[in-house]
Write a structure and sequence with these properties.
By secondary structure, this protein is of the alpha/beta class. It has two domains: 145 residues, Rossmann fold (3-Layer(aba) Sandwich), CATH 3.40.50.1970; 191 residues, Dehydroquinate synthase-like - alpha domain (Dehydroquinate synthase-like, alpha domain, Up-down Bundle). It has 13 helices and eight strands. Bound molecules: nicotinamide-adenine-dinucleotide.
């Protein structure tokens, strides 16, 4: 139950049409017809090229090409190559099939061309349901928001996630978890985004360990994808703070893997913000530990990750200790909202803990 003094907020609902369920991939042609498209460019990562080719076969004469060069953090060169391909194909719809990288490339093309996107996510990044998009140039990742790039239709088919290896499932799921956690203490958190975020945390906390135990568990896969959708909605409905800022800095400047970086940082940023956002922490704790919160939210997140054997240190992701100070400086270059005050010393201490993979501070 919310308190009455909290009843002052702005809420915008997400305009995407969502088709969710095992086998929903088969509905792609009718969903494309619904959007009135005639020439479809399919976008994916090199690793999902077969899936892209299968989609082209499924779409028959409507498939105008498969561009399987999507990359993490959308380098400007990739976005430009994708735009050239879109023009050559004379496409009137972009179909992104894959993880956040495929969706990110589609958004970067849509931002310039105004083309609609139909997204078929195969990870738990949540990008398919947001209007946020990123572009990386000279090691700096810029994030923008534009309602035009939000996919018009999203087909969530948990069958497509069965091939996602257990480790990547856990870290990708923790990426969605991070959207939920940060939404709970966002400057513009509202009652709806917080309900969605809590349900997202609850779903992911139940589903991810089950997937790590048995990657073929379709029930757990459905629940994780549901949690990822909720994570994406939470992210799209609020503005981000320190956690996403640090992940973008580390991803852009040090090319660290996206979902692993989210996973390693989440308990430490949660600990950093714990004192300044007690209500949010209580909600995170309750969602992670429905039988009663015996530990801090940060510690519960860390233990969830340790139990799934995800990476716990930035060092294990290939970061060098001498990057810590630079990362803290980059994060503080421009002011942004965060519940706890930011200081270079504080961020260095946080990153030092994450670098070593220590349990989060009490
Ligand atoms: P990804 O899309 O880069 O995929 C990671 C790897 O997994 C790739 O090699 C891919 O081919 C492979 N893969 C994808 N689905 C698979 C499956 N079902 N089975 C087997 N392999 C599969 O990773 P990601 O973490 O989903 O996306 C990261 C990118 O998304 C980053 O650039 C990040 O900034 C962006 N992102 C954006 C938002 C947003 O709202 N704008 C939100 C989250 C992430």
């Amino acid at each position: 139950m919310i308190r009455d003094e909290e009843l002052s907020f702005i809420f915008e609902s997400s305009p995407s049409r969502v088709v969710f369920g095992a086998g929903s991939l088969a509905r792609t042609p009718e969903e494309i017809d619904r959007l009135g498209a005639k020439r479809v460019l399919i976008l994916t990562t090199p690793g999902r090229k077969t899936l892209g080719d299968e989609m082209a076969t499924r779409l028959g004469t409507k498939a105008a090409g498969v561009f399987a060069h999507a990359m993490m953090h959308v380098p400007v060169e990739t976005a430009e190559a994708g735009r050239r391909e879109t023009a050559l194909a004379a496409a009137d719809l972009l179909v992104a099939i894959g993880g956040g990288s495929a969706v990110g490339l589609a958004k970067a093309i849509a931002a310039e061309t105004g083309l609609p996107i139909l997204a078929v996510p195969t990870t738990y990044s949540g990008s398919e349901i947001t209007s946020t998009w990123g572009l990386t140039e000279h090691g700096i990742k810029k994030t923008m928001r534009d309602a035009r790039v939000q996919p018009k239709t999203v087909l969530y088919d948990p069958l497509l996630t069965l091939s996602l290896p257990a480790k990547l499932s856990a870290t990708s799921g923790m990426n969605a978890m991070a959207h939920c956690v940060e939404a709970l203490y966002a400057q513009d958190a509202n009652p709806i985004s917080s309900l969605v975020a809590e349900e997202g945390i609850r779903s992911l906390a139940k589903a991810l360990p089950a997937i790590v135990r048995d990657a073929s568990d379709l029930g757990a896969r459905s629940l994780a994808l549901y949690g990822a959708w909720l994570g994406g909605i939470s992210l799209g409905a609020t503005t981000t703070a320190l956690h996403h800022k640090l992940c973008h800095v580390l991803g852009g400047a040090f090319n660290l893997p996206h979902s692993d970086t989210h996973t390693v940082l989440l308990p430490h940023v949660t600990a950093y913000n714990a004192l300044a956002a007690p209500q949010a922490m209580m909600r995170v704790g309750l969602a992670l530990s429905p039988n009663g919160v015996a530990q801090s939210a940060a510690r519960l997140l860390y233990e969830l990750e340790a139990g799934m054997k995800t990476p716990l240190s930035l060092e294990s992701l290939g970061m060098k200790r001498d990057g810590i100070e630079r990362a803290a400086e980059l994060a503080m270059e421009r002011p942004f909202y965060n519940p706890s005050a930011l200081s270079k010393e504080g961020l260095c201490a946080l990153l030092e803990d994450a670098f070593e993979g220590r349990p989060p501070r009490a």
